Model the fold of this input.
Amino acid sequence: MRIFKEEPKIKFINKRYYAFALSGLIILAGVVMFFARGFNMGIDFSGGTMIEVSFQESTTIPQIRGLLNKINLGDAQITRIGNENKFFIKTLASLKKMNLANAVKMEDIEEYEIVAREIKTGIMGAEEKNQVAAGKIDLNNTAEGEIARFLREKGQNDEDAQQSAKIIIDLRKNASGIISDFSALEKAGVKHKVMAVLRQNAFLSKFTFLSVEFVGPQVGQDLRRKATLACIWALFGILVYIAFRFKFLYGLSGVLTLGHDVLIALSFILFFNIEMSLQVVAALLTIVGYSINDTIVVFDRLRDNLKIMKKDDLEAILDKSLNQTLSRSIFTSLTVLLTVLSLFIFGGEVIRPFAFTMLVGVIAGSYSTIYQSCAWLKAWEKYFLKRKKS
Amino acid sequence: MDKSITWKVGLIIAVVALSIWLLWPLNKKINLGLDLKGGMHLIMEVVTDEALAIQTDMSATQLKGLFKDGSIKHDRIMRKGFNRIEITGSLLADERKIKDILDDDFRDWTYTIGGNLISLTLRPNIEQQLRDQSVDQALETIRNRVDEFGVAEPTIQKEGLAGDKLLIDLPGIDNPERVKSLIKSTAMLEFRQVISGPFLTEEAALKDYANGLPEDLEIVKTNPRRLDKGFYVLKAATVVPGKNLRSARRAQDEYGQPAVGFSFNNQGAAQFEKFTAANIGKQLSIVLDDRIESVATIQDVISGDGIIKGRFTMDEIDDIVLVLRSGALPAPLKYIEERTIGPSLGADSIRKGLMACIGGLLLVVLFMLVYYRAAGINSILALLLNMLILMGIMAYFKATLSMPGIAGIILSIGMAVDANVLVFERIREELNLGKSPKSAIDAGFKKAFWTIFDANLTTVISAVFLFQFGTGPIKGFAITLIIGIVASMFTAIFVSRVIFDLTYGRRKKLSKLSI
Done:
């Protein structure tokens, strides 16, 4: 199968101003968004507490906010994950704000830890609180090792304790975290004598904390600086490499094209309020490394054509090179796009910000290779061709 | 078939065999990251300044002794900051003697001498050495504690450019409070004399000292779980330092309540005996990590053994015994980051990651088959081999597979066929120019090589910066990407070429390529 039966003859270069205008507009809108709302900083960068919680019964954001209001955390950011009863709760709140400041003066992270604990108890229902107060353990919120320890303390032998704990955790893995009934444990093969202990000393809460994370505030600043530096150094490294393999102006246009891709990706992150995290930075750096690929393919061809088509003007040579490599530019990006798309659709909430950033970056990279990389060379025609002659 | 082909096929079979051998059995060779199997991830900073301060204190004490022995007149010797000692007084008279002492016994220090002030500073290389030592020692101590606590397959390693951070991964744990107090406890056990107390507030404790607290006294909080809330005024100096502890164990007090038993070594026992003999009737406090755990009146002379009484639970007793046994941390720790991932989230991520992997693979395979037909099969074989090599190398390096790592593998699928696309497109182009299939294949591979090389190298460049910048999982992603790209250079250029040669090489007349 072929998309282009013949070599296409599209005039890309004379449309360069439209392309610059389009990109300029998107980036400008991004800048406006940046000053109007700013990035939605994840705790990697801002520090704070982030909890992922799953409920057994259908729950709404206002319900959770109501619970959090009682502990002065009503302004926490709550987001529903997909259509499930799963939520992210994110907060920068300090103890002072929660009127808990009379607690001992503490180092930063311990403060977040107490916030996390407050949220946990804040979400618990009255019955669950009673159970905890009675010294029972919550099988839906206790780790395998801890359950085993608990059973050993209650007089079970090592083997039984470990085996039962494993059954419980495996059940939770399949039941998306929440076991609703003790009978499910029995069915799954927990021994009778262990069941007796569990019924007496354990309970099953109606929610589970899928993850609890907190990051101290000093890390974020350090990381922001390091992330920016890593991006700049990567761009610089690529500039040097292309300048070495081709010429300086090729390198410069390549890096400008890349900078464009990163800015477009950042703009879309702002438009869709995607959370800035380490994985988004990883996606941005991957775009920097990857989206230059098809630009290199074009430059390679351009270098050959400059030798062959000595009589033509630069615009014709640029257009010819772009057309000759067009199917390559499109299909190399397409294969990566297909995999990123699959990651975006099937990969789940955890990896979605990464997939989103890559998706935008790969599309922007393909577009910018065609409409911008060579357009920059055209803009510098005077210097570019002079160098060619010398 | 000519000889070179046999040789190439042999190499490919060897690589396949090696990868499978490295990977087998799969579940033992691929380590899952905490985000996939659940557990607790901690990053802590060792406050090495504190470790230096302790060292500097010891040197200051040594200096005091030497000045006393040489009866050198001075006002004061004290620590400034964490790495300086200042000696004040009219020191000119004894300048010669002082210089001798400093030159002989304080070679790790640089000093400046003024009329009334001598100031010593720790040499930078010694300072760095002490910092490194304290981090190593902290790492070792934490490893002991984690091992004793019984966590399966923990990861404990240094992290960060300055090397003063520790990364601790504890799979299968999600009771952060207990584990953390265990890890963080500096386990500094001290026996200190009580001057007055208890007071309800710090202000009340200060009331008797209108001119401020004298330097040799200190106000210390009680551990609210053990004693009634309050503050005591204690002597700042410890009667017997914790390093003179020989062992710790579970014990009971006279009422059968759980208590922590301990015994001193000979030196400690002698010091303790001397102190208790001189202070019968006075109060003594046992301070663990700057919190008073118990206060008792000295009834009699005590030497070798003792117990710490308090309202301990069995768990607490076990934890205290454990930290006392594993040795003291050289410096306090500061938490930087903590992530606890439950087991169900990890299981969910694995399922979804696998799905995305299969989805991506299918889409790419479908595209290559539709668009390049028979040549597509060639690229798919190369791609599968690429995946195999990628996993094999990861197993060899004992790399940990995390969610970003899975994303890296999925991306590698898309990127690996890029090289095939470049070669195939080039072959098509050569065919259009009217070349014979064989020479088109030849030219296609030859001409596409440097383009592919350049393009892949730029990706490696930015992956290297990413590796350098990132922590744990992000590093994993960068590594996966780099390995995937390197493997694709082998599969898409070398292996794919061999497959072409095998399928078309033997035919004498080749008029049409399926591409």
The first strand of chain A starts at residue 40 and ends at 41. The radius of gyration of chain A is 28 Å. Residues 217-245 of chain A form the longest helix (29 residues).
